């Protein structure tokens, strides 16, 4: 591990101690954004602004500047339009990069990359899938107070041709510039000796705060095993990372995560799409789950629904009924509060009918 790095620490502003102080910072950034705040309201949420503030040491000026750059990129790339069905070779690619159906012991979302699986798509399409996953991760981190994603990459079988340097640089650029404040820890597992030269180049693209979060682990190293056991339930962790889970990836889980994506709700609300189209997607996910009672990622559905339903109802009232509302609690049925995904569009439809 001779290539493990030394990092410098940048001067940081004092983190706001109270929720009210954080909200003032968020409001200050929103004021600096001006009309942009209304151009992309679903992106420029309080959660997004909070993430950018965290990543910029709570500097409102730096956060606003970074958000303006992110908005410019989103206008061109249109990440919100990427969906499961549009991704080439998705069933192979999802085995290379996926969100598993478990969390770490701190309740953080996990993102896994398996470099040993040969890709069937181009580097450009890799970037597209990365952005699709980052959108899901960012949405799932809407209310997070800290960076709450564990990024894990297994390098068994890695060669210089596995990850072109330009693709690595572009991926890191997108993660750090347009999706900051997500990664709380990064695990690089079993990199071969040849990776040392590659790493010396790659780490030049990393911001110091991200460098500090990276850990190298090795299967035959006792300290590595301790680190992973402290972070994960070893029964659920893949064997590639030192766990004892040898089960193959269930593609349906990742498909459900894509189907039951709150952005589907947002799209339906903002474009007045028929609710039966939205309901079809949700019921499709429910049907997949019924094939195997253990396959449905209930933790994901609960988090998505709980964190996003308030915003969904506000948007629904504003755009579909043209009636602004500030308190949606009375509108939320028992079915909604129990996080039943099939009941959500039905409940929205009943409100629309009123």
Automatic annotation (TrEMBL):
Domain of life: Eukaryota
Pfam families registered for this protein in UniProt: CRAL_TRIO
Region feature (Disordered): 1-23
MF terms (GO), sorted A to Z: phosphatidylinositol transfer activity
Biased amino acid composition, Basic and acidic residues: 7-23
Gene3D superfamilies: CRAL-TRIO lipid binding domain (3.40.525.10)
Family annotation (InterPro entries): CRAL-TRIO_dom, CRAL-TRIO_dom_sf, CRAL/TRIO_N_dom, CRAL/TRIO_N_dom_sf, PI_Transfer_CRAL-TRIO
Sequence ranges assigned to domain CRAL-TRIO in this UniProt record: 86-249
Protein name per UniProt: Random slug protein 5-like
Taxonomic source organism: Panicum miliaceum (Proso millet)
């Amino acid at each position: 591990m001779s290539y493990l790095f030394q990092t410098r620490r940048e001067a940081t502003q004092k983190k706001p101690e109270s929720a009210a102080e954080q909200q003032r910072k968020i409001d200050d950034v929103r004021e600096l954004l001006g009309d942009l705040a209304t151009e992309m309201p679903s992106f420029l949420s309080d959660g997004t602004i909070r993430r950018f503030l965290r990543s910029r040491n709570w500097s409102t000026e730096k956060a606003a500047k970074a958000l303006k750059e992110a908005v410019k990129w989103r206008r061109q790339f249109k990440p919100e339009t990427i969906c499961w069905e549009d991704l080439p070779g998705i069933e192979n690619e999802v085995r290379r990069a996926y969100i598993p159906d478990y969390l770490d012991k701190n309740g953080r979302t996990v993102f896994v990359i398996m470099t040993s699986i040969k890709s069937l798509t181009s580097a450009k399409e890799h970037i597209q899938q990365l952005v699709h996953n980052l959108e899901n991760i960012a949405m799932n981190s809407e209310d997070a107070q800290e960076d709450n994603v564990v990024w894990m990459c297994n390098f068994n079988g890695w060669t210089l041709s596995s990850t072109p340097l330009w693709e690595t640089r572009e991926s890191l650029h997108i993660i750090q510039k347009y999706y900051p404040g997500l990664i709380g820890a990064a695990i690089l597992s079993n990199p071969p000796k040849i990776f040392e030269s590659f790493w010396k180049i790659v780490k030049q693209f990393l911001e110091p705060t991200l460098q500090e979060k990276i850990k190298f682990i090795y299967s035959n190293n006792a300290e590595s095993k301790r680190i992973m056991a402290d972070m994960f339930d070893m029964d659920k962790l893949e064997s590639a990372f030192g766990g004892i889970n040898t089960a193959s990836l269930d593609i349906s889980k990742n498909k459900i995560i894509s189907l039951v994506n709150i952005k589907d709700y947002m799209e339906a609300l903002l474009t007045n799409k028929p609710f039966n189209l939205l309901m079809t997607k949700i019921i499709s996910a429910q049907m997949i789950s019924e094939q195997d009672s253990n396959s449905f990622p209930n933790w994901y559905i609960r988090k998505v629904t709980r964190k996003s339903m308030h915003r969904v109802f506000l948007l629904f009232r504003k755009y579909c009924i043209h009636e602004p509302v500030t308190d949606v609690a009375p509108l939320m049925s028992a079915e909604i509060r129990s996080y039943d995904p099939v009941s959500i569009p039905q409940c929205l439809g009943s409100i629309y009918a009123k």
